[in-house]
Design goal:
By secondary structure, the chain is of the alpha+beta class. It has five helices and five strands, in the order E-E-H-E-H-H-E-H-E-H.
């Protein structure tokens, strides 16, 4: 696994992303599968990163050398189950924190997002439903939208 600092062209937002390899990043970038988590822009490139330079070998103690060495990636290319669980739990917690601050607009999501983008209504956090085509049209028009990463039951579908 390799981590890259990435940056979107639209808002100059900087974020990290993990990839199996440099080739995996290049493939996903070419197919437009990487998007800015802030604005949804898929014009993403690698940001300038500071190199990780270790201490001189004659200044390291064995305790520091062991602590500073990252664990090798698993041979089969999968992530440890506990890491995946922890990351999903953190995403779910953030999503649960944001949803009460957001207004459910249901199938009117695309129209409401366009109205906010055009300045016809005040900008607020919203969540709702769109088809894949509607989501792509929003992205193409420069309207920031992203999917909820954890499954969500719409209010009208909950008992």
């Amino acid at each position: 696994m390799i981590v890259f600092d990435l940056c979107c062209a639209a808002g100059d937002h900087r974020f990290e992303a993990w990839f199996a390899s440099s080739d995996s990043f290049a493939d996903q970038q070419a197919r437009g599968l990487i998007a800015c988590p802030v604005c949804g822009d898929s014009d993403v490139s690698k940001a300038v990163m500071a190199p990780r330079v270790g201490a001189k070998s004659n200044q390291k103690t064995e305790r520091h050398a062991v602590a500073a060495r990252p664990a090798p990636p698993p041979a089969n290319g999968t992530l440890p189950v506990e890491l995946v669980r922890r990351v999903i739990a953190e995403i779910a917690a953030k999503q649960a924190e944001m949803l009460p601050q957001s207004r459910w607009v249901g199938r009117d999501f695309a129209a409401t997002a366009r109205a906010m983008h055009d300045g016809r209504v005040a900008e607020k956090l919203i969540h709702g439903q769109v088809s894949r085509d509607e989501a792509e049209a929003l992205r193409e028009d420069g309207i920031a939208a992203m999917p909820l990463l954890v499954p969500f039951a719409p209010p009208d579908a909950v008992n």
